[in-house]
Design a protein that fits this description.
By secondary structure, the chain is α+β, with helices and mostly antiparallel strands. The chain is built from 13 helices and eight strands. It has an eight-stranded antiparallel beta barrel. The longest helix has 27 residues.
Length: about 400
């Protein structure tokens, strides 16, 4: 009876989540926006230079996506980038920088996203920083080639607020910690323009360029920082300089074009036969993840079981599905086991962790060994890094 109850729960979870995921996917293609507003109307407002209207429509669309998906990381990153672009055209510089960083962090960067980064840097007075993005970007079709015209017409001087260098340095450092690299880059650059003798500003600018994969620019900024004092012999500085020289020679200013990070999972699985302690460690890029799995099963009767193997997962909104293959040992018996899984993942706003609940079916590849169906609950922690084009 317990087995059939678990199967029923799995079916209810899958069908409910599938319907919700399809609704979420519909939002990407312009359906489901409130009161008839859609991405086409927002773009038309930009083309007619009615930025107040464009900002209102983008705000409605993004707010609706957040409510429907209940996870900020599921907002369409191109929509967020367009919103940031509209803010920059309207002269809201700080808001534009905040939102373009959100777009870059939501999903793997693309040439179209890099167009908006390039345009925003130009619009807010930092066109000198846009070189790497100029090479990597592609103007979206909806602008009909008018991007340069709009940028030239609405380009403005720097309006960022820096009143005290110490506060600015703390703000830049905090931006780097929160992956707000474009905002950090602009503030660090502005601080070097206000007072070129501030060594920390150059070193922070170098750190941001390094995070973005632009090692030639990072090297130039670092060298400028060293020129501002006679402390080039400080521990670690020469080592960092040599590192940046090697990376600059090898990679130049190639921007990060994919995102990769590490992940670690811990949880429990309850089935009709055993209670298992599970661990998983691996890497992820976009919606895909691959990991090493280990578990220890404590049965109601008989010998404990041990499992080690590999698994892969794919996420669509909150829904994820995966397949694992590994060796399971029970007493003196060892067999290969397939483990199809489907479940829900609730990611926190900062995308540093998630609460996961899933249904897993362990199917031994040897006759005579019974399969098990269990419900798993656990926590996944994410450790983000950026990858570069090879």
């Amino acid at each position: 009876m317990k087995k059939y109850t678990l199967i029923l729960l799995a079916f209810m979870m899958f069908t409910g989540v599938r319907a919700q995921s399809l609704n979420s996917l519909a939002g990407v293609f312009g359906k489901g926006e409130p009161h008839g507003v859609n991405i086409t109307l927002a773009r038309q407002a930009i083309m007619s230079e009615d930025f107040d209207k464009a900002l209102y429509i983008y705000g409605c669309i993004i707010d609706n996506q957040i409510k429907d998906r209940a996870q900020g990381n599921q907002v369409n990153n191109e929509t967020m980038a367009e919103y940031a672009y509209a803010l920059a055209l309207a002269g809201a510089q700080e808001a534009a920088l905040v939102n373009i960083d959100l777009a870059l962090n939501l999903r793997t960067p693309s040439p179209v996203i890099y167009f908006y980064v390039n345009a925003i840097l130009d619009l807010v007075g930092f066109g000198s920083l846009s070189g790497p993005y100029t090479e990597a970007c592609r103007q979206p079709a909806w602008l009909d080639g008018r991007g340069e015209v709009l940028n030239a017409k609405y380009r403005s001087p720097v309006l960022l607020n820096i009143t005290e260098s110490g506060d600015a340095i703390r703000h830049i450092t905090n931006c780097i910690k929160e992956f707000r690299y474009i905002e950090a880059l602009c503030y660090a650059t502005y601080l070097t323009q206000i007072d070129p003798s501030i060594q920390a500003a150059w070193l922070l600018q170098s750190a941001v360029w390094e995070k973005l994969g632009c090692y030639s620019s990072a090297l130039k900024s670092y060298e400028m920082g060293l020129e501002q004092s006679g402390e080039s012999e400080m521990p670690g500085m020469e080592k960092q300089l040599d590192y940046l020289r090697r990376k600059s020679d090898k990679s130049g200013n190639r921007l990060a074009t994919w995102q990769m990070g590490a992940m670690a999972y811990g949880g429990l699985t309850y089935s009709n036969r055993t209670t298992s302690i599970n661990g998983r460690y691996g890497v992820y890029s976009g919606p895909l993840s691959v990991s090493l799995n280990m578990s220890i099963g404590i049965p109601k009767h008989g010998d404990a079981s041990y499992y080690a193997g590999l698994s892969g997962y794919y996420n669509i909104g909150k829904l994820f599905a995966g397949l694992g293959l590994g060796l399971q040992t029970i007493g003196a018996s060892t067999t290969f086991t397939l483990s199809p899984t489907v479940g829900l993942s609730f990611v926190n706003k900062r995308r540093t962790s998630s609460f996961d609940i899933s249904v897993a079916w362990a199917v031994p590849c040897r006759s005579g060994v019974k399969s098990t169906l269990g419900i798993s609950i656990g926590k996944t922690f994410y450790f983000k890094t950026n990858g570069n084009t090879k």
